[in-house]
Amino acid sequence: MGKATGFIEYTRSLPILADAKSRVQNWDEFHAHLPVDELKKQGARCMNCGIPFCHTGTILDGATTGCPLNNLIPEWNDSVYRGQWFEAYKRLSLTNNFPEFTGRVCPAPCESSCVLGINEEPVNIKEIEVSIIDKAFAEGWLAPNPPEIRNGKKVAVIGSGPAGLACADELNKQGFTVTVFERDDRIGGLLMYGIPNMKLDKKLVERRVKLLSDEGIEFKTSIKVGADITAEELKKDFDAIVLACGSTVPRDLPIEGRDSKDVHFAMEFLLKNTKSLLDSNFADNDFIDVKGKNVIVIGGGDTGTDCVATSLRHGCKSITQFELLPKPIEKVHTHESWLAKVRTFQVDYGQEEAKAVFGNDPREYCILSKRFVTDEKGNLQGVETVEVEWIDGNLNEIAGTEKVWAAEKVFLAMGFVGAEKAKLFNDLGVEITSRGTIAVNENKQTNVKKVFAAGDCERGQSLVVWAIADGRKAAKGVEEFLNN
Ligand SMILES: Cc1cc2nc3c(=O)[nH]c(=O)nc-3n(C[C@H](O)[C@H](O)[C@H](O)COP(=O)(O)OP(=O)(O)OC[C@H]3O[C@@H](n4cnc5c(N)ncnc54)[C@H](O)[C@@H]3O)c2cc1C
Ligand code: SF4
After folding, report:
1. Residue 337 pLDDT more than 80?
2. Which of 114, 123, 149, 382 has the fewest CB atoms found within 10 Å of its own CB?
């Protein structure tokens, strides 16, 4: 423990973000690092408490508690306090394959489990994490390091999101020959085509993929496994198969007017946007343009926030975000609230930007959408809603609160209901759960011995950090299976 009195002397620093009004003018990342002296102080706030819950990585009462990767947080906090950046990087890379992603996009369940958070602001763990890995890249500490010996066994990984990449990385390090198949034209899954560029710069995804490729992993893009390559071919050509296909079926809102061409799933908007940005800086015009339009995003969560922020960068006329649930309570740091599963009010980057541009938070709570109002040609004109109240977990519509909101575009961001009902899963013979996910045991092995699954496709829609953890676990499962 670096400084015994650090948590008394220093307060938590806020991250340095570009001004919300100016950053919506471009698609660049808006997060800058704290200066080194300030990071040392933030590291010194870590108390090295007797039982550091920050790295437990468990599910408590349905919510994530601590880091799912079991990152050795107190150890790297201490190293940063002492200015030992290389040691900090070495400890971090023992448990996390891609800290440059989690350090940017993780909601940091480690911080809500930090013991300091019982009565004050927790340690700034995520900020320290991203600073360590960015320094490591800047210093050139991440040179390609392929395995010295290949064991002759071949593994196919289907899907190149964080679960597939982490699994491929772990197996490659152990000397397996790994091929990653991806149906999109770029590698990264939702790191590439879900999370927008301003939250996670795609150059960082490409940098990591290049490193993995230089270490010997083969990447094959624009190949849909199950169609371009059959399950039989896979089984014949590879000793093990890891399905890391994501949870891509979006929850729909089948109300009147849903067939309007102006009502889109969020992912259609976000994917096309990033692709057009990367392909041609929007010159190809192949994206959903909301410039000058009234936009409504239905659903909170990360995906909804990303739609808000993307619409603002297009120059929308107005932005509103509907939430069915009531406004959460304000965060307090008390013994009772620590680790408790309560929704607390948060202002994410998209809402902060909307407030800067239009003067108010875009979220409207307890709103139920009843009908999409369209003209005779199917052009969207608005959304008819009613306010609701929640009584003992039940939803009641409040009579007399019906309203029509002007909207020319709506994005549905209400979560995902599971993996696709892919022919591939059928052909491989893997069992699917009643939640629409692939059934696995504790080693991430399916009912078909040489087939494993990792990430959202077996866990259900989750987080990047869980996908990495699942990918690592699947790699261990494959290793045990093939080495036995
Ligand atoms: C818009 C959005 C924003 C998000 N923001 C955050 C965030 O800020 N922080 C966070 O922690 N989490 C966030 N998440 C969740 C997070 O991105 C996912 O939990 C994570 O990416 C899941 O990883 P995965 O590897 O399991 O699947 P994915 O990232 O979904 O990757 C699966 C890949 O498999 C490919 N694939 C599927 N079937 C086939 C096939 N037959 N052949 C070849 N390839 C195939 C898909 O094309 C895809 O590239 C967000 C999710 C969305 C949708
Ligand atoms: S990966 Fe997420 S939970 Fe783990 S230390 Fe980093 S920010 Fe915290």
Report:
1. no
2. 149
- Structural domain count, the chain: 3
What global pTM score does this model have?
Answer: 0.96
Q: What is the CATH number of the domain that holds 319?
A: 3.50.50.60
262 lies in the same domain as 364: yes
State the distance from the centre of ligand 2 to the C-alpha of 138, rounded, in angstroms: 21
Mean pLDDT calculated for residue range 65-73: 95
Counting ligand 1 atoms within 8 A of each CB, the residue from 245, 321, 351, 440 with the most, and so the one to mutate, is 245
Spell out which residues line ligand 2, taking CB within 6 angstroms: 67, 69, 71, 73, 96, 102, 106, 108-110, 125-126, 129, 465
Give 110 Cα–ligand 2 centroid separation in angstroms. 6
Q: Do residues 428 and 407 share a domain?
A: no
Average pLDDT for 349-354: 97
Tell me the pLDDT band of 328, cut-offs 50, 70 and 90. confident
Q: In this predicted structure, what is the pLDDT of residue 341?
A: 67
Query: 332: Cβ–Cβ under 8 A, 6 or more apart, which residues?
Result: none
Strand partners, 484: none
Q: Are residues 399 and 291 in the same domain?
A: yes
What is the per-residue pLDDT across 380-438, written as a single tens digit (0 to 9) for each?
999 999 999 999 889 999 999 999 999 999 999 999 988 888 889 999 999 999 999 99
Domain that holds residue 436: 154-248+417-483
Closest CA to 455 of 440, 443, 441, 471: 471
On whether both 168 and 226 belong to a single domain, the answer is: yes
| Sequence-ordered list of residues with C-beta below 8 angstroms from that of 416, at least 6 positions apart, any chain | 247, 248, 249, 250, 251, 456, 460, 461
307: Cβ–Cβ under 8 A, 6 or more apart, which residues? 266, 269, 270, 295, 297, 350, 411, 413
Ligand 1 contact via 226 beta carbon (within 6 Å):
yes
Ligand 1 nearest atom to the CA of residue 190, by list position? 29
Q: What is the largest CA-CA distance in the chain?
A: 72
Query: Considering the domain boundaries, does residue 179 fall inside one?
Result: yes
**Residue 147 domain-assigned?**
no
CA atoms of 471 and 71, how far apart (whole Å): 15
- Averaged over 99-105, what is the pLDDT? 98
Residue that is last in its domain, among 363, 395, 414: 414
pLDDT digits (tens, 9 = 90+) for 152-186: 999 999 999 999 999 999 999 999 999 999 999 99
Domain annotation covers residue 144 = no
Give the nearest ligand 2 atom to 96 CA. 1
pLDDT at 2 over 70: no
